[in-house]
Structure formats: structure tokens, C-alpha cells
Design a protein that fits this description.
The structure holds two protein chains of two kinds. Chain A is built from five helices and no strands. Chain A is mainly α. In chain A, helix 1 runs antiparallel to helix 2 and helix 1 runs antiparallel to helix 4. The two termini of chain A are 26 Å apart. Chain B is 78% helix and 0% strand. Classes of the chains: A mainly alpha, B mainly alpha. At the A-B interface, helix 1, helix 2, helix 3 and helix 4 of A face helix 2, helix 3, helix 4, helix 7 and helix 12 of B.
């Protein structure tokens, strides 16, 4: 059951990462078109700045969960490395719980941003006049997803810890290295 | 407030809580204990306005550019070509290590991936040709740090974003010190290998026809750097646009070397998202902490601190440098930069130091952090790719290069023109 949940979470976040990657590639194409049109004096598509900002906001919310399942968020492990396995596990679970709490708080505090936009029907102050609820909705959903992923991972890590499954715990809540990516 | 934030910052990071999370946590703490009005209500808005940034999207684009080149096998081919051009120098292949690491970390933010790639390609050669493992692996670790100085540099984008400094100006400012460092690395290697030939390996000469042929591997990369950096300086493109152009060129270069398929492209994209998200959590956290501290009256406290300390501006500078060297033993590059910028940069700017100049100085200092034990990411990476011996070999090997960096810090202080001249002529 726990393993199934863990596997599903990983697969889902892989799909999220790929979707974000594709969005990034589309942004590159959009920016390039804009640069070329401008270079040849054909005017501009307009709004490539604005759109790339929205893509960045999506990446910086949805992507956070992908980094979390891969244990890619930087942690300083000077002291952790000096400890024996139980001490390390203590630090890992502490880090996981604190992370979870902060992510929940940020997700909770992000809602008013979207809420105000929805109430006022705000549009971006740009030629595109983008209805802001679209990018902010995607961004807020990303933080919700991060909160959900963090909570699920905390529970998964706790259950591995209780069951004494050290390697699985390490793979869920330990410190990953960029090298193995 | 300044001291309690600084101390909690170190304490919480030592507990191995993720750095980005620590910054958020401190922001919440400042809001609770030091602010007259609730700042938490601004949290969501700060997170949104710092993430929805067309400046910051240059970060994932530069990461992607590097990932494509490295995963497309371009780094291996560049290494082979640079070997033909540089191995006649005393020290042989060690120079190819430095040059390849410099070139590749220059394109990407992921100097770790660069160091790993170069180490993987180079290590078998080192064994075959009987190199001393210390200097050989030290050169890869040290060369890999140069990428955050030579533009395009993700660290400089982050610095510019958080301190409201012009990113093109910072890129211009980093060029001369970065190239000087690379040159100094090569010089010090030659010196060491002339005095103690046993530390290097055989110098090997290649014929000119071979060298000319290898240019077909080198020129596309040099052209790529030229276009990316040139388009920013010429004013044709913003850093974000030049990054997009660079990504397109990297795809073309990697496709010609038939190292790129759908699978490696998907891996490159996934890796890019992970690395960029990791960077973004730290940046957004720092942005919120910055906002919280400023709203809680950081400015007044800082001026009190500076006036009350009795230190001259130069004395403060020395103190800050010492702080970075000590923290650099334990904390990694980007975390170190981002966590200290909200406190240190306003102090230095208040004392009249130029923000562009200080940014470059800070980069040299955090470059040292990448290769100083016990926590030096590049040391681990190179050791990881070596798969034999002890990490102490790598640590011994970087010592000469760390000394070169220390000299560079002194040079930047004595001759600020090294940094400020190039931005002033454009």
C-alpha cells in the first residue's frame, strides 16, 4: 500500500517534470520567434516577457514537488554525516516535517493572491491583458501539489521508519546527490 | 534582529533542514517577533511576484543548455579536442581538464554535471598515462568552479535579481576576473609541473593537421559562447533571450554529434526542472526573508550596526571576507550566496562599496567554497567519478588552486578596475 503510493507519487511527479520541460521548450520557441521577428524588423509577437514569467511561476511551484521526491532540495549535511544511523534518521524526519509545515503554510498563504484576483477579475497591466486567474491558478495549484506531495512523503517516510525499512526511508527522506540524477 | 537571524540561520541549516525552507522559516520568525504588523499576509504575494519573473527564467534555460551539451556527448568531444591543443604544456592533460571544465561550466549552471562529466572522461586517461591523481583531479574540481564567474552565470543572475543590480553589467564584470583565474590556473599548473615533473604527466605533441581537424569539435562551442554572450553585450537580446538562443544552438550542436535522442532529451529536461526548482525554492525563500527583514526595519538596524562597530569600511570588508571563508567550509555556493545576500550586501553598499564589484568578489569567495573541505561539492563529485583512492587526493590537489583564488581576492581589492573597467566602457 505504502509502496504503491510512493510509486504513484514518483510517476506522477515524473509526468509533471516532463510537462514542465515541454512548457520550457515551447517558451524557448516563443522567445526565439520574437527575437527573430524583431531582428528582421517585422515587429514583435509581444508578450514573450510576460508569458515566460508565467511559465517560470509554474516551474517554481509544480517543479518543487519533483525536486522533493528526488531529494534534490539542498541540505547542509556537515553534522548529519558525523552521526550514526539513528541520529541521521532523526535529522531526516525532522527536516521532512519542518519542510512539510512550511510548504503547507506557503500554500495556505498563496490562496488569498488567487482569491483577490478572482474577486476583482484582475487582468495583467500589459498589452496582452491576460486574465491573471489563469497563470495564478496554475501557480497556486502547483503549491497545492507541492503540499500534497510533501505530506504524502512525510507519511510514507514515517511508515518506513516505523517498519524499520532503513534503505527505503533513506531513499525517501535522506539526502540525494546531484551526481546520481 | 540581525544577530538572531544570522545565528538561527546557521543553527537551522546545521540541523540539515533544506536551505530554502530555513529561509522561509526565518522570514516567518522575523514577522512574528520583530514586526509591528503581520507580514505573513504578504507571503503569498512575495512568492508569486518573485516566481513570475522573466528574468529568472534565464536560470532553467541556461541549465537546460548545459544539460543538452553534456548529455549530448559534446563535453567528451571537446575534451579530446582540447587535449590536442593544450597537452604540449608541462602538465599535459591537466590543462585539458581545466579548459574543458571552464568552458562547460561557463555554459551551464550545473558546474556539478560538468565536473562529473570531465572526471568520467578524463580519469581513465590519467591512469593509462600514469598521472599523479592529486593534481589531476584537483584541476577538474577547481576548473569546474570557474563557470559561475565566466558569463553566462546563474549565480550572477541570482545576485542581480536579489540585489537589483544590472545582470548584463555583472556578466561584463565577471569576464576579465574569470579569464584571469583560468589563466592563473594554467600558469600555476605549468609552474608546479616544471618544478616537480612527477606531479604532471607526459607532455604530448600533436601535429597541426590533427589540431585543425579537432577544430570541428571546438568551433561550434566557441561560436555558441560568442553568440550567447555577444548578443547580450551588443544589446540585441536580454539575458533570457540569449539563453533561449543558446538552447537552440546547443540542440543543433548536439544533434550533429548524434548524441541526442528523445530519451536523452527527456532526461535533460527532467534534470533541468529538478535543478531549477531546487534553485528557485532557495531564491523565493530569500526573497521573502529579504522582504520580512526590510519591513521590520533592517535599514535602521544596519546603519546602527555599522556606526556602532567602530570598524572602518576596509575593516568590515576583511571581516566579511573572513566570514565567507569560514562559512564556505561548510555551506555550498548558491545557498551561501542567497542566505547571506539579504544581510551582507546592504551593509557593503551602505559603506560605499560598488554592488557590481562586491558581487564579483563574492563569486570568487563562494567559488572557494565549492572546493574547500569538509563540504565542497566539486570535491565529492570528482571523487565520485574517480571511484578509487581517497578524497584526500582531490583535497591535496586543489590546494594550489585555492591559493590562486585567495590571490585573486587580494587582486580584486587592490585593483577594483579588474572588475569595473569592462562594464564602464560598454
Amino acid at each position: 500500500m505504502v509502496d504503491h503510493l510512493n510509486g504513484a507519487l514518483r510517476r506522477a511527479n515524473r509526468i509533471v517534470a516532463l510537462a514542465l520541460g515541454i512548457a520550457l521548450v515551447l517558451t524557448v520557441l516563443f522567445i526565439l520567434t520574437d527575437v527573430f521577428l524583431r531582428g528582421f524588423g517585422l515587429g514583435s509577437l509581444g508578450g514573450s516577457d510576460e508569458i515566460s514569467g508565467y511559465v517560470m511561476a509554474a516551474l517554481a511551484s509544480w517543479g518543487l514537488a519533483c525536486a522533493l521526491v528526488h531529494r534534490a532540495h539542498v541540505r547542509i549535511d556537515v553534522i548529519r554525516l558525523k552521526l550514526a544511523a539513528p541520529g541521521r534518521a532523526m535529522m531526516d524526519i525532522l527536516a521532512m516535517i519542518v519542510t512539510n509545515a512550511i510548504v503547507l503554510l506557503v500554500a495556505y498563504q498563496s490562496w488569498p493572491v488567487l482569491q483577490k484576483t478572482l474577486e476583482r477579475g484582475s487582468r495583467a497591466n500589459t498589452p496582452l491583458e491576460t486574465p491573471l486567474w489563469i497563470p495564478q491558478g496554475i501557480w497556486f495549484a502547483g503549491w497545492l501539489w507541492f503540499a500534497l506531495t510533501a505530506t504524502a512523503l512525510t507519511l510514507i517516510a514515517l511508515s518506513y521508519l516505523m517498519a524499520g525499512r532503513r534503505d527505503d526511508f533513506e531513499a525517501t527522506a535522506g539526502i540525494g546527490t546531484e551526481v546520481e540524477l | 534582529m540581525i544577530w538572531s537571524v544570522a545565528i538561527s540561520l546557521l543553527g537551522l541549516m546545521a540541523l540539515s533542514i533544506p536551505v530554502g525552507v530555513v529561509l522561509f522559516l526565518l522570514g516567518v520568525g522575523v514577522s512574528e517577533f520583530y514586526s509591528a504588523f503581520p507580514l505573513l499576509r504578504g507571503l503569498g504575494q512575495m512568492v508569486w511576484s518573485s516566481s513570475a519573473s522573466s528574468t529568472l527564467i534565464a536560470i532553467p534555460l541556461f541549465v537546460l543548455l548545459g544539460e543538452i551539451l553534456v548529455r549530448g556527448g559534446v563535453a567528451e568531444r571537446t575534451y579530446a579536442a582540447l587535449d590536442k591543443w593544450l597537452s604540449w604544456l608541462p602538465g599535459g592533460l591537466v590543462h585539458a581538464n581545466i579548459a574543458t571544465a571552464t568552458m562547460f561550466s561557463a555554459t551551464s549552471g550545473s558546474s556539478v554535471a560538468t565536473a562529473a562529466t570531465v572526471a568520467t572522461v578524463a580519469m581513465p586517461q590519467a591512469e593509462r598515462l600514469n598521472y599523479d591523481p592529486r593534481l589531476f583531479s584537483g584541476a577538474i574540481a577547481a576548473g569546474g568552479t570557474l563557470g559561475i564567474m565566466i558569463p553566462p552565470s546563474i549565480n550572477l543572475i541570482v545576485y542581480g535579481f536579489l540585489t537589483e543590480t544590472s545582470i548584463p553589467q555583472l556578466f561584463l564584470a565577471g569576464l576579465i576576473p574569470g579569464l584571469l583565474l583560468a589563466l592563473a590556473f594554467i600558469l600555476v599548473t605549468v609552474l608546479i609541473c616544471v618544478v616537480r615533473p612527477a606531479l604532471g604527466g607526459p607532455s604530448r605533441s600533436f601535429g597541426w593537421s590533427e589540431r585543425i581537424r579537432s577544430l570541428s569539435q571546438l568551433l561550434p562551442i566557441i561560436f555558441l559562447f560568442g553568440v550567447v554572450i555577444g548578443s547580450i553585450y551588443a544589446g540585441w537580446a536580454t539575458p533570457t533571450e540569449s539563453a533561449a538562443i543558446g538552447v537552440a544552438m546547443a540542440v543543433v550542436i548536439a544533434a550533429f554529434g548524434d548524441g541526442l535522442n528523445l530519451r536523452s532529451m527527456a532526461e535533460a529536461l527532467e534534470g533541468t526542472i529538478r535543478i531549477s526548482a531546487m534553485i528557485m525554492l532557495v531564491i523565493v525563500g530569500a526573497y521573502f526573508l529579504n522582504f520580512a527583514m526590510t519591513s521590520a526595519g533592517l535599514g535602521r538596524q544596519l546603519s546602527d550596526l555599522i556606526q556602532g562597530s567602530g570598524l572602518s569600511p576596509f575593516g568590515t570588508l576583511m571581516l566579511v571576507i573572513a566570514l565567507y571563508i569560514v562559512l564556505g567550509f561548510f555551506i555550498e555556493t548558491l545557498s551561501l550566496m542567497v542566505a547571506t545576500i539579504p544581510i551582507v550586501v546592504p551593509i557593503m553598499a551602505g559603506l560605499g562599496y560598488d554592488k557590481v564589484w562586491f558581487g564579483i568578489l563574492m563569486i570568487v569567495l563562494v567559488e572557494m567554497a565549492l572546493i574547500t573541505p569538509p563540504v565542497g561539492l566539486n570535491l565529492f563529485v570528482v571523487q565520485g567519478a574517480r571511484k578509487r583512492g581517497s578524497i584526500n587526493d582531490v583535497i591535496m590537489g586543489v590546494i594550489p588552486y585555492v591559493l590562486v583564488m585567495a590571490l585573486m581576492v587580494a587582486a580584486l581589492i587592490a585593483l577594483p578596475g579588474l572588475v569595473l573597467w569592462l562594464p564602464s566602457v560598454f
